[in-house]
Amino acid sequence: SRPHARLQCTENHWVIYDLGSSNGTFVNDNPVSEKGRPLRDGDIIQMGTTLIVFRAKEAQASDSTNGDTVS
Fold it and tell me: What is the mean pLDDT, run by run of 10 residues, along the chain of 71 residues?
C-alpha cells in the first residue's frame, strides 16, 4: 500500500501528518489533517484497524527533516 502517514520531530515535539489516505489517520479519535497534529506521550494513533500507542520521553530533533513515513 502507499504511504499513509508521516511522523516528524521538530522543535522538540513530534508531529503526525496524514498523507491523503483514503480512510484517514486519527489521534485519540480525532482526524489528523495534512497540516499535522502534535503528538503527546500516550496518544492513540489509529490507521485503519491498526492502533498504535505513541510513547516519547522527550522529543529530540534529528539532523534529518524528512520524517518517517508509515504505510
Answer: 88 92 95 96 95 80 57 59
> DSSP secondary structure string, 25-58?
EEETTEE--TT-EEE-TT-EEEETTEEEE---S-
Exposed/middle/buried for 60, CB within 10 Å: 0-12, 13-18, 19+? exposed
Question: Which domains does the chain carry?
Answer: 5-57 (2.60.200.20)
CA gyration radius, the chain = 11
Instruction: Compute the distance between CA of residue 32 and CA of residue 19 in angstroms, rounded to an integer.
Output: 9
Note the pLDDT of residue 71: 59
Whether this prediction's pTM lies above 0.90 is answered by no
C-alpha cell recorded at residue 30: 480525532
